[in-house]
Fold these 2 entries.
Entry 1:
Amino acid sequence: MTSTIDRTDAPAGSADATPVVRKSGGFTAAAANYLEERTSISGVVKEFGRKIFPDHWSFLLGEVALYSFVVIILSGTFLTFFFQASMVETHYDGSFVPLKGVEMSAAMDSALHISFDVRGGLLVRQIHHWAALLFIAAIGLHMLRVFFTGAFRKPRELNWVIGFTLFVLAMAEGFTGYSLPDDLLSGNGLRIIDGLIKGIPFIGTWTSFLLFGGEFPGTQIVGRFYTLHILLLPAILVAALALHLVFVVVHKHTQFAGAGRTEQNVIGYPILPVYAAKAGGFFFLVFGVIALMASFFTINPIWNYGPYDPSPVSAGTQPDWYIGFADGALRLIPPGWEFVWLNHTWSFNIIVPVLALVGLLVLVAIYPFVEGWVTGDKREHHILDRPRNAPTRTAIGAAGVTFYAGLWAAASSDLMATHFQLSIEGVIHTIQAWVVLGPFIAYFVTKRVCIALMKKDREIVLHGYESGRIVRLPGGEYIEVHEQVDEYERWKLVDYEVYEPIMLRPNAQGKITGGMRFRARMSRWFFEDRIAPASKAELESGHHGHGEIEGGSNH
Amino acid sequence: MAHDEVSGPHSAASDSSAVETSRGASTGTAVIGSDVVNPGEPPHRKRVTDLDPKKNKHAERTVYTLFYLSIAGSIFAVASYMAFPIEDGDPAALRLNTLFIGVGIALALFGIGLGAVHWGKALMADKEGIDLRHPVAGSAETQARAIEIFDEADRESGFGRRTLIRNSLIGAIIAFPLPGLVLFRGLGPQDQDPVELLSHTMWKKGSRLTLDPSGTPVKAADVTIGSVFHIIPEGLNEREDRLEQKAKAAVLLMRLNPADLNISPGRESWSYDGIVAYSKICTHVGCPVALYEQQTHHLLCPCHQSTFDVVNECEVIFGPAKRPLPQLPIEVDSEGYLVAQSDFHEPVGPSFWERP
């Protein structure tokens, strides 16, 4: 842009020196001027053009999610031009010979039409499906990144909740979309949802009846899911996404500890030009990876499953990966968890897994507020924690991941049994033990590892790292020379703070309430074990102790 | 974090902004961390493309080559669209169509992506910038003004003072979405009761057991010991609500050695010479219980692995289901065909709240 302006200014002879936009005959300048006088766009450019974004590979996870969502919208829009969201019965008459003449819904028929009779249609369908799988995976990893680095702390708690909402919406989008082709596999998924809903006390039967427009499967569900999938859910998702990004701008991005970085600044590359090139280029890379996956790897081959019919089912049925944890939770319930009481059926084999899943999600959503309440810390935090420096939080996260992984693995229990020649009972019982005990083991192991790593960091700060150089002292003693880390590296290792457990003291009324006791107990749980960063005094005395043998080091 | 609050080592500028940022906000139970001084940004290291003009030239060539490759990829994708038709229904042609269009598109995308990223990393000015952060909360004046505006609006409207107006408005706003909610009753048919529908299936006295999906009736003599048949009621395929009925009426028919069957009192006449019929719809969440282990006489649901023991009237021996699969009482009609004696004696399929 500037270069064009410069060139048109060239006759004046001072083009290089003056970047000021003067009135000129150049088209770009004229267009810019036209826009500016009608939109005041220069203010936006001034505000955001040089906005700084810090760099870290983990910050790309959210971008992957955003970009795969863009790919989903592009590919999904194409698919809507061909897909018929109708359950009207028809006889298939397309190119796929094995299904010729088979009775199926218009939805399945049009999904097969897209796959076999529209050039590039299968490619776009697969791009859409792969992008959806990647979208939810990227959101999940992005959430883990935000969790383990403490990026959810003030002022970003609400944005965490918005992000969590996006995660739930993405799963809902995934499930509604996956159900649309009305094939055997997705129909069985719907059947499971129907059975699940019916098991909910009080409202279950009628909820299912209203959702399916009568008895399962009915002739309504595909059309209704279509409205949810392409209108209602995307509208909410886009709104929440926009809000999510607005908050990223308002808060400015977090950054990891590093030399020169403080809570008051953000260091990185400006949007124009570097960040635009890198982030913009990254969109094409994400899209490219999805396109390659869609070209080479079949996903959701509905033609192998056939149309939905309530009677057949293929062995080894599995939902898309992100629904796995819910399906797994259902599988893990031991026999007999259902009772008739007060002339009603209480299906605890449904209620318990549903509560477990909802409980897990609620814990995820409210965690920032819990931690904020425990620490009582009301300051803004913009420097990220290294996971090891918040051992209890990291351990809680690891426990959560372990629990989720157990539920997720359970969704493949039958495949594990058949592939590894195990008994299904053995697999289920193992995963049951995993889900109950695993989180505790993961918690303790992670916490110990974090603390060990913090000790190691402290050791490196105070005594340097092992250089591998063995020196023989005059007395005959052999010693390995430790090199000091330079001050920039050292800063990364000491720039964190620890919290202490609360001292339980009576409040203004001289009372100790139950809430205070609970908070004190939580605080002790969180912060009992801690390793303080090395102080200046420690650093000096530490150096001193090794002064002689560190002769060659650069401290 | 530590360096906000610690005075001393920091420059004066960052100290003042620390106060501003935290606005005296409570540190909670945080203890001030290290008093080590932030050394400031490390010296800038030039990239190889900044130092060596040849490398710079090379990077430039790489970038535009990638962009040209992208153009080639787009052209390739368009050409593949034309060169690989799928209209003859050959699966191999479809594979080539998908593959080549996809690879062309991927090349076009990777060309732009890699080119732009390389341009940004290797050639664009390697100059990091610093933005200063400001507290998210607005300034004290802005906040005061916002409060003032609300106060003025309250005074001018009387929102706080005229409580009758205010409360009636709140009531009206709560009430007005109700009709909208009620409209959603229309999602399900008005003239049907789900509990009633769930309690009955198509089976009635004299319905022939027919094969799924062909609808051919089954003779008792055709059912040999150890065999299993997927069964639907006679006439199902002609019904308008075929799938809804099938979702309740699907049955598995098996013949065992009569001596192996443990039959409870009252059910002695429900089977015929070792031939038993059980609902195929899982009592957990309704998947078809489609896997039969002939040797052990176990039925396994492929969705959540509930396992039913046919010998013991399909009681649950493993998995999340609680109730046995309901048994369909059968007999043989005058022509030797298997028929139902009646409907199931209990609702089939997943449990529901109103199920007695």
Entry 2:
Amino acid sequence: MTAAFGAFWDEYRENWVAVIALAVVVVIVAAALLAPWITPQDPYDLANLDLMDARRPPGFVGSGGYEHWLGTDAQGRDLFSAIVYGLRISLQMGIAAGAVAMSIGALLGILAAHSGGKVETAIMRVVDLQLSFPAILLALVLVAVLGQGKVPLIIALVAAQYAYFARTAYGAATAERQKDYVEAARATPLPGRRVVFRHILPNCLPPLIVVGTVQVANAIALEATLSFLGLGLPPTEPSLGMLIANGFQYMMSGRTWISVYPGIALIVLIVAINVVGDQLRDQFNPRLRR
Amino acid sequence: MLGYIIQRLLQAAIVMLAMSALVFVGVYAIGNPIDVLISPDATQDIREQAIRHYGLDLPLWQQYLAFLGRLLRGDLGTSFVLNIPVTELVFSRLPATIELAFAAVLAGAFIGIPLGIYAGYRPRSPLSRGIMALSVLGFSVPTFWIGLILILTFAVNLGWLPAGNRGPTVEVLGIEWSFLTWEGLQFLILPALNLSLFKLAMMIRLSRAGTREVMLSDTVKFARAAGLSEITILRRHVLRLISIPLVTVFGLELGSTLAFAVVTETIFSWPGVGKLIIDSITSLDRPVMVGYLVLVAFLFVTINLIVDLTYALLDPRLRRGGRAA
């Protein structure tokens, strides 16, 4: 297992862009985890905010006595602190939604492949139908129906994304189903459940991990989009999308930093995750094996 | 073949029915629209009159049956807020969205496919890596952010193009179009570009992946052995072999572009159906939401049906009923 991982890492290391992307992801996750210790201000604590400091350009030294090196937003929040806390929320939402969607999707996909017949047709029809329906619209409607807040948002993101995992797991499991080792496992008196979870599932993991990486990035982007449209999290806990939306109205008057810096943070995160996912996909794809 | 078509039509009808029920129940679970329609200090009489007028006092299933009956007659109800029939409202906004979506999808295909074929043909060249980097950006960066940057660059800083709204239009066949005059086209460029970046990235990736696989196939080996030039191989063989998935995606993407226009239209104040749905969500205008969603669902079921039937025409194995691959 360790040797396999070493070989995998050696191949990964060949692509230096992917290595940098991985480093960026690690740094951002660390910054999000350590947010209270590395930021000069708690942007959610209204007592810390002073409207005198609002909309100041980068480098301004505010009433707190420290330099706002990315400037401040319309409420006088230190933008750097707001961005780090925003990344924290974005990552929370993305990972939570991605994990739940992956569990539900993988289960449905493997169930469909394993049971066959009517169950298979029913599940995969629904999944295919959902895949043809744009995720953003579904999320939009669900958020509108369920209201604002973290849980409704995660439900909306999961509903919009589980189908990708179900398709992937189904594809992988149908391919595995025909292999000899599954046949052999079925011939033993093991219960079907054990065959599914101990034999088929582990072999479906690589494609699921690839899709999972990309879907976490997609969930983050979707959450930011919903927040930008004013349908995401409540304004007391601004995510990156809401910071960008708040800055949009000041952009025309030249105060571009309020939107631009949170946007850059968002994009660096999303692109880095996607690059890592891309590299994993290339490495897991047997058709591109040399 | 006829049996297959009937089977698919029935499936599509069932799906539409299920979707309309889901959408209806889902949307009618939101708060009480009466609070939005009448001022809080209205008398109880006015309140009850309004509730009866909009049929909100009936049980949900009765409201749904009434809704379904009206749906079959092509009547999607009347907007609570604007007091205009929903069908009329949606159709008055639809041309703007369709124009935007077509411009975006065409731009994506005509720029994306050649770039993607090149990237698949020379996967290790620096230009290909640049193209792939562009596609990663277009694929992963949220549409709204690209829209902001486009406005910031081309409207605020350079002042070349307008930052929003639709601008002047020309009426042809009773419908307003932007692309016929240079003035109108200027207003179309930024939103169309914004909306097309996602398709562009997708076209690049699909044609690259297709080209990479086809280049290793026997078809290309034999074509080379026959002495065909590389350009001819790419144009005559590779492009044809990768075009089936591209056409599918092109069709499907046209539908999702109409939906994704929600974001672009909001940023650029483009007066299409996307802006209409966001406005109706914020004002809890239920008939407009339900009407729009049912129309979109109908659009998607229709597109899926067409794609399925086209596949059946292309691949005889699928015609025998059974499960579609």
